[in-house]
Design goal:
The protein has about 210 residues and is an alpha/beta fold. It has a single domain, classed as 4-Layer Sandwich (Metallo-beta-lactamase, Chain A). The protein is about 25% helix and about 20% strand. The protein contains six helices and ten strands, in the order E-E-H-E-H-E-H-H-H-E-E-E-E-E-H-E. Strand 9, helix 6 and strand 10 form a beta-alpha-beta unit. This is MBL fold metallo-hydrolase.
Amino acid sequence: MPCVAVVADDGGSTVVDAGQGPAHARLVQSAMAEAGLPAARRLVFTHHHWDHTWGACAWEVEEIIGQESGAALLAAEARRPWSDEYLREQVVADPRLGPSFRARARAVNDWADFAVRRPTRTFTDRLVLPTGIEVRHVGGRHAPDSTVVAVPDSGVLLLGDCFYPPPFHLREPGPAGEQIDTRQINALVAEGFDWYVDSHSPPWRPPAS
């Protein structure tokens, strides 16, 4: 499962990425309630990929924020007839989709309650939320809409998947590690945050200089 981050203040919680499906979103909601955190007020997508956005239909929020190029991609995703049968058909047509599409099938228990939700508020380059959270488009090879989310008061930069290789079915031959965007991650580390959080690893600190 990808990371879902929660930034809480007196005005409500900002949730960064929605979870990979409704069940994942509900796990996060239960954890927030158990921790006594305020209810979610907004969602921020780090990018449009399914494992970061498919939980959005289980959140009740005032707004969903995403970069404008990702909003267009999610609009196209929302028009697809998602179901177990459709997923199987797509894998037969392109076997390289197998890992992603089989994981999607496991993430959604009931397609009747599922919908791809698009951002209700978009930005181009940078957006500062009332809480001081900064949402910044960085792009990259993994997704054109990759966005990082800075929480200056906590010294935290949420990276999403921005420096990761492209998705498996779009990847060039060769080891995945060689396709990591080292220039991008080095530039982000140089910004000097105390903690960095990418979506599929524990939080980490930059190496000491």
